[in-house]
Amino acid sequence: MIVFDLKCRKDHRFEAWFPDSAAYERQVKAKKVACPECGATKIAKAPMAPALKRSESDIRAAAEARKMLVKMREQVEKNCDYVGPQFAEEARRIHHGETDARNIYGEATAEESKALREEGVDFGEVPWIPRGDA
């Protein structure tokens, strides 16, 4: 079976299931497919995202990666000081010896991150996994 996102001439969108692409073509040509909203039989395929088949190992690998990133977040929060949007400023102060060295984390814009790199400030960027079952 295959599902297509369809639309009528009035741009009403709906989905329909067919045994295969040839069956879709035959039924649309014979005007056997109608818009559930207005009854129009002039139907076309609407743009749709492809359905990607994932293997069981892909799903397990993604779950493991997420689990690892959640643990990383827990470790960062446990062992580092949160400095929020002042991350770039505080990282510079530590780098230049203006304040005691310590582990910090926070947010920085792409421009701030680029400037820190150019100045030779050592830091890393971590994909931050939101809390909860997102």
Describe the structure.
By secondary structure, the chain is α+β, with helices and mostly antiparallel strands. Helix content is 38%, strand content 17%. It contains four helices and five strands, in the order E-E-H-E-H-E-H-E-H. The strands form two sheets. It has a three-stranded antiparallel sheet with strand order 2-1-3. Strands 4-5 form a two-stranded parallel sheet. Strand 1 and strand 2 form a beta hairpin. The longest helix has 24 residues, at 56-79. The two termini are 30 Å apart. The model has no long low-confidence stretch (mean pLDDT 91).
- Characterize the main sheet: 3 strands, antiparallel
- What is the CA–CA distance across the termini? 30 Å
User: What order do the strands of the largest sheet run in, or round the barrel if closed?
Assistant: 2-1-3
Low-confidence stretches: none
User: What is the residue-mean pLDDT, rounded to a whole number?
Assistant: 91
Number of strands: 5
Radius of gyration: 26 Å
Structural class: alpha+beta
Give the helix/strand layout.
Blueprint (H helix, E strand, L loop, with lengths): L1 E7 L4 E6 L2 H9 L13 E3 L10 H24 L1 E4 L2 H9 L8 E3 L3 H9 L16
Parallel strand pairs: 4-5
Antiparallel strand pairs: 1-2, 1-3
What can be said about this structure in brief?
This protein has helices at 21-29, 56-79, 87-95, 110-118; strands spanning 2-8, 13-18, 43-45, 81-84, 104-106.
